[in-house]
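CO-FOLDING WORKSHEET

Operator: S.A.
Ligand of interest: zinc ion
Run index: 479
Mode: holo prediction, single chain
Checklist:
[x] sequence pasted
[x] SMILES validated
[ ] output reviewed
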Amino acid sequence: MRFRSRLTRFPRLGLRPATRCLGDWAGRLVGIQDEDVARVRAASDIVAVISQHTQLRKVGQRWSGICPFHNEKSPSFSVNPTEGVYYCFGCRVSGDVITFVREIEHLDFVGAVEWLAAKAGIGLTYTDRDEGQQRRRSRLLQEAMAKAVLWYHDRLLNHRDAGAARRYLRTRGFDRELVEKFQIGWAPDRWDELSKHVRLPADVLTDCGLGFVNRAGKQQDFFRARILFPIYDDQGRPVAFGGRKLPDTDGPKYQNSRENALYKKSSTLYGLNWAKSDIVRSNEVVVCEGYTDVIGFVRAGIPRAVATCGTAMTEDHIKSLKRFTRRIVLAYDGDEAGQRASDRVFEWEARHEVEISVLALDAATDPDELSRTNPAALVEAVEQATPILGFRVSRVLKSANLATPEGRARAASAALAVVAEHPSSLVRDQYVMEIAGFCRVDEQRIREELQRIAAGLEREARSAKHTGNRSGKSEGRDS
Ligand SMILES: [Zn+2]
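OUTPUT RECEIVED:
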């Protein structure tokens, strides 16, 4: 009842004049005409926009739901569609539809207005010429990418030189529906087929990574003889391609677009544009390694998977995902799952209030293959994903030789070394009993040993900080 009584105070907060003023001020500062900003705000349905990120329920004249900006179990987030504003009684964020899009999509003011304008079909007038030019350039590149996606997709579906690609996709379980949903394409085995047909200026082709001018001064396509998986940003705009070669042909298995004005590897997640509504609905995201794994999860009825594009998971990926859910399940190929997860995962869990689990797959398989041979097993594996610390500890214990006292002591030490990495002593303590029981070592001895290792690690971290001698681990690496 307390929640309701707070709700009745909501209209008196007088949010609207403040946000309107901020919006107009910011609009003038960066260059969209005030009238356009007002039109976009009026045309946007705040309930529909927010509903993409949290489930809202109608309560009287307002809508309420779980706050998308802080972690909570009962709803403190309220939307007033008449006033066009939202407010959270928990973390006290507030604003109008433009503020919401800015916060949730990590956009600046102009970016948020453009995002909403695109949805409402409103054209914008820019007041600042430079700003306008930069935006126009981005839009030009986006249009070029969209054209290329369509052309490659049509080539795969309809051209006779794509026969081998179509046959290959069929043998790998891609039916017409999947090919169309993911807009999969075919880059023919020719030098300049795309550039001849899409008729885009050379600098546009170069800037979005579709082509280049070769040493002989001729326009050449970047992708050749490859099945193409278009990579979209989370708003569904194509920004890059992942290109897979056919079996028994030359070259690396995958060739991806280079980074460009539209595409940053370390923050892009393949599949997020399709997966985000199911991620919000199920409050969970599966992170895997490849395009075909993402599609495999869809095939198995789990449409909430995304893939890192040829890099390990980065902190930017976590930031991007936590806008939609706090529960992240890693589905890297079987044996590597533990190692591939960055050793900074525990740090990220604490800093971003996310919970990272690992899906245990048989070392001999991957999600793509399992989705074709035994989809039920893939579904079960997702349901049984375990927190990353528990996953790593049980791997150490399972591989140990428990037949001898020395073997059990070694297993206990190895497991403790893993547990000691976790920053929370409360979490660490949860594993003491498990290790003690498994290795038949006295619980108190295990606890003391754990404290000793953890204290050593903390000392190390402190002195590393003190001398500025930080270890040079990099977050992402190309694979
Ligand atoms: Zn909140």
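REVIEW:
Residues 67, 69-70, 76-77, 88, 90-91, 93 surround zinc ion (CB under 6 Å).
The chain has four domains: 2-127, 137-256, 269-384, 394-467.
[x] output reviewed
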